[in-house]
Structures are given as structure tokens and as C-alpha cells.
């Protein structure tokens, strides 16, 4: 049994997508980040970065004590290795999956996240910051589109790299992008969107929360965090 500490955001969807694909038994522990649940000591003990997602594997492969994992990329790698799926064991193929997983973790995720911040949430519209992140998101969409020109998935068969990337493409309109400009990416996106496991993962989110995570009330919780907020 996997305990998934989760909220209804792109990084959270990555893990429900994996768990729904895998058939591993899991239970969702909602962490309402708009209300400050991510600062509760019991959550920080699992996820010291005060971010979702995190998991606790109650039955690790080695039969030892439960294992807690934070950072969505690490979670996907851990789970894929646990069940031997969605990450090829051949080292050449595995490194392809890993580089696209890390491309999402270090590139698309942070850039699209800052894009959302400056385009949607910042109280002042700072042209330089908006252009910087909208353009960088656009560049990354272009890289992905090119990669997908001659293949169905980003690295071999459907993998944790696709699962990490997909939820960050879902809000493409809010990122100032047009999927019609990226036909290979659009085909890939529609293919993953229609997978039964993806549909189930997003239905789980709907059952937990239908409100936007960033709202007038939650801004004071989510933005302006400094070290003092998690000082223990
Ligand atoms: N690199 C981290 C990023 C996680 C992250 O930013 N999570 C957001 C939701 S998508 C969060 O928990 N935010 C809470 C906060 O900002 O306090 C990962 O991929 O797990």
C-alpha cells in the first residue's frame, strides 16, 4: 500500500497517473496547500521541502521499514523501479527516459510554474518576466514537439517521462501557448489524455477539489514564503 500525500496540481497528477497505470494499491492523503497543510509538522517529516507530492511506501521491496519519498521525479523513479514498469531496465533506454524526466523536472516544470506566476498571479504585470517565461515555455514546447515528430512517446514505450510532462501541458492556454502550433505534441497530448488511467487520475482530482488552488485567500499561504515559514 502506498500513501500518497497529494493535492490537485500538476505535480500531484504525475503520481496519480502513475499509480492508476500501475494498479498498485494506494490511498490518497489530501494536503490542502491553499490552506497551509504543507506546513504541518507531520507532513514536513515526510516532505521537508513543504511541497506535494510525497509518498510513504508501507511495504518496500526489501521488506524493511516504510520508505518516505518527496520530489515527484524521485517518486516516479522509485515507483517505476519498485514494480519494474514505465522505466526500461536496459541502461541505454533507461537513460533516455531519465533525461526527459529530468528535462521536465529542471526545465518545463519550473519555467511553466514561473509562467503561471507572472502571467496569472502576480499583482503587477511585469512585461519582462511574462515574456521571459512565456517565451521559455514556448521554446520547451518546440523542443518537445521536435522530439515527438517521429515517435509516439518521449522515450520508447509510455514511461514516467511522459507522465511527468503531461500534467504541465494540460494548462497550455494559461501558459500563453497554442497546441495547434505543435502538431506532434498535440497528437501525443491527445493520446495520453484518452488513456483510461489518465482519465481515472484526473477524476480522482475532481473528487477531491474543484476549486483553483491559487485564490485571493490562498495567495497569502502560497506566496512570499521564506525560511521562517518552515523553521522548526
Ligand atoms: N520539484 C517539486 C515541486 C513540487 C511543488 O512545487 N509542489 C507544489 C504544488 S504543484 C506545492 O506543493 N506547493 C505548495 C507551496 O507552494 O507551499 C516536485 O516536483 O515534487
Give a quick set of tags describing it.
232 residues; alpha+beta; four-stranded mixed sheet; 9 helices; 4 strands; 51% helix; binds glutathione
Describe the protein.
The chain has nine helices and four strands. Helix 1 (10-22) runs parallel beside helix 3. It starts with a strand and ends in a 10-residue tail after the last helix. The protein is globular, with a radius of gyration of 18 Å. By secondary structure, it is α+β, with helices and mostly antiparallel strands. The chain has a four-stranded mixed β-sheet with strand order 2-1-3-4, with helices on one face. Helix content is 51%, strand content 8%. The model has no long low-confidence stretch (mean pLDDT 97). Bound molecules: glutathione (GSH). Glutathione is lined by residues 9-11, 33, 38, 50-53, 71-72, 222. Glutathione (GSH) is lined by residues 9-11, 33, 38, 50-53, 71-72, 222.
What summary fits the major beta sheet? 4 strands, mixed
The radius of gyration computed from the alpha-carbon positions, rounded to a whole number of angstroms, is 18 Å
- Uncertain regions: pLDDT < 50 for 5+ in a row? none
Give the overall shape, derived from the CA principal axes: globular
Average pLDDT level: 97
State the share of residues found in helices, binned by percent. Answer: 40-55%
What share of the residues does DSSP label as strand, in percent? 5-15%
Bound ligands, each once: glutathione
Would you report the number of β strands? 4
Quaternary structure annotation: single chain
Order of helices and strands: EHEHEEHHHHHHH
Q: Structural class, from secondary structure content? A: alpha+beta
Trace the largest sheet across and list its strands.
2-1-3-4
Distance between the termini: 30 Å
Number of helices: 9
Amino acid at each position: 500500500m502506498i500513501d500518497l500525500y497529494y493535492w490537485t496540481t500538476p505535480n500531484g497528477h504525475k503520481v496519480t497517473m502513475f499509480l492508476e497505470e500501475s494498479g498498485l494499491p494506494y490511498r490518497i492523503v489530501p494536503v490542502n496547500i491553499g490552506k497551509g497543510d504543507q506546513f504541518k509538522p507531520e507532513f514536513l517529516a515526510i516532505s521537508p521541502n513543504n511541497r506535494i507530492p510525497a509518498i510513504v511506501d508501507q511495504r518496500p521491496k526489501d521488506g524493511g521499514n516504510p520508505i518516505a519519498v518527496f520530489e515527484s521525479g524521485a517518486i516516479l523513479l522509485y515507483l517505476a523501479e519498485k514494480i519494474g514498469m514505465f522505466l526500461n531496465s536496459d541502461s541505454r533506454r533507461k537513460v533516455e527516459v531519465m533525461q526527459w524526466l529530468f528535462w521536465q523536472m529542471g526545465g518545463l516544470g519550473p519555467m511553466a510554474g514561473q509562467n503561471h506566476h507572472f502571467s496569472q498571479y502576480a499583482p503587477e504585470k511585469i512585461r519582462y518576466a511574462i515574456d521571459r517565461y512565456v517565451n521559455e515555455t514556448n521554446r520547451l514546447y518546440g523542443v518537445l514537439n521536435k522530439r515527438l515528430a517521429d515517435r509516439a512517446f518521449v522515450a520508447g514505450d509510455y514511461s514516467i517521462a511522459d507522465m511527468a510532462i503531461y500534467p504541465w501541458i494540460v494548462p497550455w492556454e494559461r501558459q500563453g501557448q497554442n497546441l495547434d502550433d505543435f502538431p506532434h505534441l498535440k497528437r501525443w497530448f491527445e493520446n495520453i489524455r484518452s488513456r483510461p488511467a489518465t482519465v481515472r487520475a484526473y477524476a480522482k482530482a475532481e473528487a477531491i477539489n474543484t476549486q483553483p488552488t491559487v485564490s485571493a485567500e490562498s495567495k497569502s499561504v502560497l506566496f512570499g514564503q521564506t525560511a521562517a515559514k518552515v523553521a522548526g
